[in-house]
C-alpha cells in the first residue's frame, strides 16, 4: 500500500490532492515546452537553412493576432497571446510528462 493513499481521507482532501497534482503537472509540462523550444531555437541557430532547422524549429503559431482591444475611452486594455508549437516543444512536453510520471 502506498504511503500517500486516500484511504480514510475526506473528499475535500482528495480534491485538494488532485488539484495540487494538476498544478504540478501543468508547471512541468510548460517547463518542458519552454526547454524544448529553446533547444529547437539553438538547433536552428547552429544549422541555419538546413534540414534540422526545418524539422525542429518550424511550427504553427495559434493565438490572437492582432490582440483584441477593449477601449473604455479613459483606459484601453489589450488581450492577446500566441503559442509557438513545433516538434522540439512537443518532444519537450513528452519528456516532461515522462519525468512527471516518475515522480
Automatic annotation (TrEMBL):
A Pfam family the protein falls into: DUF4321
Protein keywords: Membrane, Transmembrane, Transmembrane helix
InterPro entries: DUF4321
Transmembrane segments: 21-47, 74-100
Record protein name field: DUF4321 domain-containing protein
Source organism of the structure: Candidatus Methylomirabilis limnetica
Amino acid at each position: 500500500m502506498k504511503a500517500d493513499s486516500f484511504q480514510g481521507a475526506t473528499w475535500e482532501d482528495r480534491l485538494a490532492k488532485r488539484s495540487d497534482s494538476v498544478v504540478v503537472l501543468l508547471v512541468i509540462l510548460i517547463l518542458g515546452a519552454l526547454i524544448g523550444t529553446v533547444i529547437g531555437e539553438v538547433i536552428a541557430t547552429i544549422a541555419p537553412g538546413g534540414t534540422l532547422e526545418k524539422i525542429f524549429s518550424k511550427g504553427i503559431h495559434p493565438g490572437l493576432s492582432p490582440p483584441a482591444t477593449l477601449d473604455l475611452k479613459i483606459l484601453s486594455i489589450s488581450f492577446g497571446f500566441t503559442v509557438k508549437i513545433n516538434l522540439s516543444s512537443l518532444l519537450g512536453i513528452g519528456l516532461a510528462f515522462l519525468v512527471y510520471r516518475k515522480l
